[in-house]
Amino acid sequence: MKIALKLLQIDEIASVTGIELDEHDEDLAGGGTVTIYERLRRRPEQSSCHPFLVTVDCVTVGFLMLREGPALPSWANPDAISLHNFRISRKAQGRGFGTAAIALAAVWISVHRPGSSALTLSVNEDNSSALRLYRRCGFASSGCSFAGRLGTEIVMSCDVSELLKKFVADR
Asked: What is the secondary structure of 45-68 as a DSSP string?
């Protein structure tokens, strides 16, 4: 199986199909792709947002967004890249695609943004499956949390170099 990230143009986000989540999981991941597109379209720093499809053998199974510089949320360190709207389709979950997508995001960061040393994210404290995934990938709590749209969000971070080691070990 070939797992890959495909960089999208921002206007392609609204037409993404094939990612099936239940309503609650979609809410936790920032809403549907049309909602994500509409929010991103209004952002002044669009060029600092990088949307990706997660594909397996050229079939879409997920989506993620990396943000940098002026598009970073207030809770992120300025030298980090932040992960947003991450989702793997319900039918594709539990098969390692989420772990692989995070590792591939680290590869993209190391190639395209070598000055960025960490990948950071926020996750709802009640999203136990996402918390398990992130911990398994090497993310640790930064000790910071904040009130998010759906409850308390925990800020987590991992060095890109650690994620790359995992990518090499899993190959």
From this structure: TGGGEEEEEEEETTEEEEEEEEE-
